[in-house]
Here is the input.
Amino acid sequence: MTQPYKTPVSALVLIYTPELQILLLERADKAGYWQSVTGSIEGNETPAEAAVREVREETGLDALAYDFQDWQTSNVYQIYPHWRHRYAPGVVENTEHLFGLCVPSALAVTLAADEHVRYEWLDWRDAAKKVFSWTNEDALKKLGERHHLVL
Here is the structure.
């Protein structure tokens, strides 16, 4: 049985505390690649439904038990060449919808071992220096702006 291609529409969820500590996850398939929770929509999901599902799958947290926010913004980016095989032939761009999830403190999370190997809570400015994708850095910049801070 062949795996269906990924849909080139995804969610990125910045999980953060009121003090702007950011949860970052290190990818299992790319050592040193740190990111926020991300994932493609599946089936007929909306981006918000995908965001809630991905938070649960990647961290064990129930996004709806905290302050889950749809930031009503998205970015279109070029899919990294080493991940394009996951998409239908000729698909090179992905639309990523941005969400925030404010939790009360730097919570312990349960990682999906096939996706991530470690996690850290970092100050939002340090997190912006550590993430590998420009869209994740842009999301952190937007978080700062929502709190009247500049990256």
In short: The radius of gyration is 15 Å. Strands lie at 9-16, 21-27, 34-35, 37-40, 67-78, 93-102, 116-123. The chain has a mean pLDDT of 96. Helices lie at 47-59, 124-130, 134-146.
